[in-house]
Amino acid sequence: MALVMKYINIMNRYMDTHGDPRTKDWPMMSSPFPTLAVCLTYVYLVKVLGPRWMENRKPFRLQNTLIIYNAAQVIFSAWIFYEIGISGWLTGHYSFRCQPVEYNNNPRTIRMVHACWWYYFSKFTEFMDTIFFVLRKKESQITTLHVIHHGCMPMSVWFGVKFTPGGHSTFFGLLNTFVHIIMYTYYMFSAMGPQFQKYLWWKKYLTTLQMVQFILIMVHAFQLLFIECNYPKAFVWWIGMHAVMFFFLFNEFYKQAYKGRKSQYKNLLMFCLQRPEKLRKEDEPLLANGHANGDCQTTEKKLLNGHANGKLMANGSSSAKSSNGYSSSSNSNGYKNGAVLANGVNGHTTELTQRKVK
C-alpha cells in the first residue's frame, strides 16, 4: 500500500509540473484518479449492478425522459461545436495542417480551453445512454463496442484537457460534436414513437458517418508524423490510435448489424423451408432478439424484415395470429401455407403464396 501511495504521489507531482496551469484547479483536473474511478463505476453499473437490479423488474418506458434527454444532448453538442469552431477552426485562426497549443491567456484562447473542458464533461453526460438501456432492459444494445466507447472517452479526453487544451487535438472534438448533433437528433425522433419511424430510414448511415469521422481524425493526427509541428508526438499517437481502434470496432459492428443479419435471415429461411418442424440451435438468438416469433417463420419478405409472426407447422399446416386477436390457418392436402401474417401496427392481414411440399 505504501508503494502504491508513493507512485501516486510521484504521478501527482508530474501532473503538477507538466500539466497546464490554467486547468490545474478546475473540477476533476487535479488528478486522473477521480475520472478513472467514475469510468470504472460506470462499467460496473451497466454491466453488473444495473442488469442484476433490473432482473426481476419490468422495464421502464421513459419516453418523455428520453425525448428531453436527447434534445438536451443535441443542444449541448451544438453549443460545444460552436465554441470549438468559433475559437479557432471555423474562423481561420487554426491551421488544419499544424496547430500548436497556445499557452497564453488571450480571451479567444481561454475560450477554447473552456470548450475543451466542457467537451470532457459531455463524455460523462453520455453515460446516460447506457443507463437508459439498462432501465429499459435493452441488453442487446449494451454491446462491448458501446461500453468501451463510452467508458474510455472521459479518461482519454482528460489527458488532453490536462496537458494540451487547445491546438491540433481539438479537431477531434469539432468532428465528434458534429456527429453527436446528428446522432442525438436521430435518437430524439426515435423516442417519439412509431409514427416517426418512416423518417428514420437513415439509421445505418449514422454508423458510416462515425467511421468517416475516425478516418478524418486518423489522417489529421498522423500527418504530424511526417511534418514538423510544435505539438507533442505522444498525443498524435494517442489520438490517432484511438481513432484506429474505434474505426475497426465500428466497422465490425456495421458488418454484423447490416450485412451479417440479412445472410442470417436467408439461411434461417432456407432451413425452415426444408425442416419447418425444428429450429437450429444456432438460430435461437434470432428468436430471442425478436427477429422471429415462432418455431420457423412463414414468409421470406417478413423474415428478412425481422417481423414474421407465425409458424410453419410440422403437420402440413400453418397459423398466424394478428395483433387484434384474429387468426387464420390452412390445413392438409400437402400444403404448408403461411396464409395470414400479423401486421404489428393495425392488425391487418396479408394473403401470401402457398408453398407445395413434395
Describe this structure in words.
- This protein is mainly α.
- The protein has a domain at 32-267.
- The chain has 11 helices and 5 strands; from the N terminus they run H-H-H-H-H-H-H-H-H-H-H-E-E-E-E-E.
- It has helices at residues 2-18, 33-54, 63-89, 107-125, 127-135, 144-163, 170-191, 203-222, 233-274, 284-288, 300-305, and strands at 311-312, 318-321, 327-330, 335-336, 355-356.
- The strands form 2 sheets. The chain has a 3-stranded antiparallel β-sheet with strand order 1-2-3, with no helix packed on it. The chain has a two-stranded antiparallel ribbon with strand order 4-5.
- A hairpin with a 5-residue loop joins strand 1 and strand 2 (318-321).
- It is globular and about 50 Å long.
- The protein starts with a helix and ends with a strand.
Number of helices: 11
Main pleated sheet: 3 strands, antiparallel
- End-to-end Cα distance: 75 Å
| Number of β-strand runs | 5
Mass-distribution shape:
globular
**Category by helix and strand content:** mainly alpha
Question: What gyration radius follows from the Cα positions, in whole Å?
Answer: 26 Å
Q: Determine the strand fraction and express it as a percent band.
A: under 5%
Approximate helicity band: 55-70%
